[in-house]
Amino acid sequence: MMKRRKNGRFLPVLLLWTAALASCTPEPLTYRGPNTGNGHRREAGGTLPESETFLSETDADGQSHLYLCGVRYPDGYDWRKDPQKGSVECTLFLLRDGEPLLELPVGTGYQLASDSDMHRIVRGHLYTEYSTETETIVSKDGEECYRVPGRERLRGLQVRGSELFTLCESRSGGAWVLRRDGSEYLRGEGSVVHDLAFDDGTLRGSPPLQVPAANRQKLFFATVEEATLCWWMEGRKYGTLACEENQSFFDAGLADGTPWCAYSQSGALVMDVGSYSTLAVKHGSRWMSADGRAGRFWVLYEMEGQLQLRQVEMSPYSFTRLLEMPAEACALAVSPEGEWAVLAKDGTGCRIFSSGRGEELLPEGTEAFPVSFFRFLGNTLYLSLQVEGSPALYIDGTIHIYRFNGCFDGIEQGP
Fold this sequence. Notes:
Elements: E1 3-6, H1 14-23, E2 65-72, E3 90-96, E4 99-106, E5 119-122, E6 125-131, E7 135-140, E8 143-149, E9 152-160, E10 163-170, E11 175-180, E12 183-189, E13 191-199, E14 218-225, E15 228-233, E16 236-242, E17 247-255, E18 258-265, E19 268-273, E20 276-281, E21 286-293, E22 296-303, E23 306-314, E24 317-326, E25 329-334, E26 340-346, E27 349-354, E28 358-361, E29 366-367, E30 374-377, E31 380-387, E32 390-395, E33 398-401, E34 406-414
């Protein structure tokens, strides 16, 4: 049965933060001025590092921590309708194991935006992007990492060792650039199909919680230029695929060095992994999401109003239908051990289906869409929610409600 708690615990110290958040003043706790530090600055030029080791997702004592970020708005302000069009002064916050770690003021003059796609948690730090009329500024914990001429949109930010890698698209469209500590490393035409990620053997390229030091994380992304899909690995062209007539790509990447892509062609939805065509569905199907672990893939799509989840085993090849139901919206999450979960919304409300937990109907008054995050960290499933107008977290079957005006919009586990 679904458990619902108000100001409940999911970590021992989260209750302490709940009280602190409700009572803290509008003044920032650790803000040191708009973009005054040097973050990941370095000289221009150079090549991608050839080191075979990198930092794991634990701190020096071998501990892994839970990080949450979100935005707190003034009491009474309707931030979802946002009548002030993003100009209202609010607070961007970062928590570590439930304790306040960072607060940054958002508003005119701070070079920070409240949009959830313009800030992210990476290795325990809050990275933000901001575009003026003439420049793009990337910051770490409120301190400037770099600024460049032009208006760019981040399509991935990764940290390897002490170096910052960003993949950006021009906000006017038609071009992208890969940067290393702000310096241009690679530039191309077209659009980004898969954000900058690490190829760690998973389909989505999500960094694992623990990474053996003997392995090397390789940066990859995918682009489409005119009639060609291109995979990029470590700043070099890894492979290409010519687009056929009536073919439109909407996702592509690398899984343990194996190229994969998903596209529509002449009314069919197709997903190719290496030399296998893992899925081909006709009749106006709509792509949702996919994930995979070590030769097993889960593909989520919608066809004629029916949500479809299918599992594909590559060796030996097999094809299994896991879920089929009417749905207006949905999202997919897969754990490192291969447990899958689907969040779906229909006319009766929102519910979660999972291979390990069965079906759970979320309580009346719960809003889960649009989804800020729905993901496994280890074997724990997390989901950002709004319950009766208050921000909330779903954590393995229990809903924790928090009393402030705003939302949680990012979660990570790291050092």
